[in-house]
Design brief:
- With 230 residues, the protein is mainly beta.
- 10% of the residues lie in helices and 34% in strands.
């Protein structure tokens, strides 16, 4: 980070320290691991130990592909998921214990199967009752992403408005919106889904007078990017 950016963060009182313990469980769908060739695609109940994921599908099935099955390479690791197992569905995880006023950053990879597929990421605060649909939910982030079947798209929230938590359980939902071909059992590959947590301190941080004087002196010398005129 450049020094002038460090000074700006100091003045704003913004601290971004990622919490290494904050993460989605099995975000790259490596568990349960199966042997490619003997089973190139497998279906697991969302109650299977180690999957970490739940699905809105009424049959509770989660579809996992192995690397290079039907020519599709995993974005990360050796396995990835398809949002449409036997139905149009959503894969989601609920995460508790994130303090209010924290900042959430996310990333994930998405790819179409037969053509351009569209999915949506929702990050929802479940409210004081910690129940989805309980009447006090707050959507902190929602956006759709479309990708073809020739390459993975990789997405983060870099450059977007900060996602600031309210202190309740968060639900990360990866929602199948549309799939090429219209078959409800085909579409929307997902891999490398994860998030990090930073600390947002909106209170002003006292800056020593010497720092301001030094910054003013540098500004007077034009070292903050002021162009010289002829």
């Amino acid at each position: 980070m450049k020094k002038k950016h460090s000074l700006a963060l100091l003045a704003l009182g913004l601290t971004l320290s990622l919490n290494a313990n904050a993460a989605l469980v099995n975000g790259s769908f490596e568990t349960p691991r199966f042997t490619p060739g003997s089973a190139d695609v497998s279906f697991y109940s969302d109650s299977t130990a180690g999957t970490g994921w739940k699905t809105t599908a009424t049959d509770h099935q989660i579809e996992i592909w192995s690397d290079n099955f039907q020519g599709v390479a995993a974005y990360d690791g050796a396995q990835f998921a398809e949002l449409n197992a036997f139905q149009v569905s959503t894969l989601y995880q609920d995460v508790a214990g994130i303090a209010a006023n924290s900042i959430v950053d996310f990333h994930f990879a998405h790819r179409g199967r037969l053509g351009v597929d569209t999915m949506q990421l929702d990050i929802v605060d479940l409210g004081a009752d910690n129940l989805f649909g309980g009447g006090d939910d707050t959507t902190l982030f929602s956006n759709q992403y479309s990708d073809g079947n020739t390459a993975w798209g990789f997405y983060t929230n870099n450059g977007l408005a900060p996602i600031i938590t309210l202190g309740n359980t968060l639900r990360f939902s990866y929602i199948s919106i549309a799939a090429a071909g219209g078959n409800p059992a085909i579409g929307n590959f997902l891999d490398a889904a994860d998030f990090g947590v930073g600390v947002n301190d909106p209170s002003p941080v006292p800056v020593p007078a010497a720092v301001w004087l030094f910054g003013s002196a540098l500004a007077g010398l034009g070292v903050f990017g002021k162009r010289r005129t002829a």
